[in-house]
């Protein structure tokens, strides 16, 4: 099994987005990551979860939701990172790329979203119901997906830290609005804050995400 990432470029409606693809030889599913606000494909937490999924036989794709030029603007204005329709459309385009590229089109697709990336994941799941088979949110803001929540059909796992009380409430509200989903599981990880920085808590995210994706991909 090779876990060395290969660099790829995704064409997202005419915008080139850089990504890192890990493709284990026997993979039957792929997890596409959507990072949170102010982050990138180099997010240490997402890369740790990605590596764990790859070690368990799942392909993974981490990519930048913004171009280098947009990142420069965002560092100054901090507006693009919270443009949920924009990052949702970028992730939707990435799902389309995965579904048609020669390297990945044979793989079942799951989405992993952190923070605002969870909203992007749910928007993509709503827009691509035939292709997205499962969604996992880590410390996410699924509520920001708005009207798309009612269109999500893919099984969804919402992981929230037990100390992240405002986000727990927002996840519960979002779950109640996901009326079309076949399965929506909310797991509260005791003793974890928003970023799951406490010892052993990100490892619990790895375990839960791996369980869920292996079941559905």
Automatic annotation (TrEMBL):
InterPro entries from the UniProt entry: AB_hydrolase_fold, Dienelactn_hydro, FrsA_esterase
Give start and end of each Dienelactone hydrolase domain: 21-207
Superkingdom of the organism of origin: Bacteria
- Recorded protein name is Dienelactone hydrolase domain-containing protein
